Q: What sequence folds into this?
């Protein structure tokens, strides 16, 4: 049973995943007594405490940060913005794309895993320096390499939290494509279906293109769809997934 968080010390909570209710995403936490609670992302103190516990439970995270010379600072403000905005919108789009696929494609994807992974796909950005996340210009090569580890960091943060392997893999590889030229490189631990990765990837990209960013204006529906169609022509996106997104955008995304 999910309850409203009581006034307890944040260190008593552990992370248990994410759910979506009425098109809004919530993180699920559990207290020391086994009671589960919902939080949308606005309690920065709570999130910082929980993310710190994730870091402490997986030494590999600190090794990654050290390799890229990143200070282990938790950007909870970004987490709040992502939860209430981009990650939630990515989930809505991913669900819409899935719903518009034919049955033969739907059978290849676990809807529950797809939904949770799309809500958590950018969690790793809480450890990316804000000066890179919010840079009002094109990233240089070094900054791009740091930005690109956010999917691996998200995977590592959640790895010790009891999240299932399919969700973890979808989060880790949501920037991959059909040509396997995305990041990180595919390895033997990849359990996510290409189709699941495709759905989250295209939902993530479409949501980002339709948002105003510090380095560019908000793109129109047509502009965003044209950019993604180029990736179809390059062999990076499945035509069936793109067609489902196109239908979703026409039905639900007003200019």
A:
């Amino acid at each position: 049973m999910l309850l409203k968080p009581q006034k307890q010390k944040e260190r008593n909570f552990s992370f248990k995943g994410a759910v979506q209710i009425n098109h809004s995403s919530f993180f699920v936490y559990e207290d020391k007594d086994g009671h589960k609670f919902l939080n949308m992302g606005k309690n920065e103190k709570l999130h910082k405490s929980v993310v710190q516990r994730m870091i402490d439970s997986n030494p590999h995270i600190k090794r990654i940060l050290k390799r890229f010379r990143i200070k282990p600072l938790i950007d909870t403000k970004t987490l709040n913005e992502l939860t209430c905005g981009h990650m939630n919108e990515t989930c809505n789009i991913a669900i819409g794309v899935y719903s518009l696929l034919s049955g033969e494609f739907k059978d290849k994807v676990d809807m529950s895993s797809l939904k949770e992974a799309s809500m958590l796909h950018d969690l790793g950005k809480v450890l990316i320096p804000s000066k890179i996340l919010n840079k009002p210009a094109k990233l240089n090569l070094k900054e791009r390499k740091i930005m690109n580890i956010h999917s691996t960091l998200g995977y590592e943060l959640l790895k010790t939290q009891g999240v299932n392997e399919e969700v973890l893999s979808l989060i880790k590889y949501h920037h991959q494509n059909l040509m396997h030229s995305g990041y990180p490189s595919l390895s033997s631990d990849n359990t996510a279906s290409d189709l699941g990765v495709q759905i989250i990837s295209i939902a993530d990209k479409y949501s980002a293109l339709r948002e105003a960013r510090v380095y560019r204006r908000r793109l129109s529906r047509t502009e965003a769809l044209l950019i993604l169609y180029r990736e179809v022509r390059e062999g990076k996106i499945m035509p069936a997934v793109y067609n489902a997104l196109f239908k979703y955008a026409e039905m639900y995304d007003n200019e």
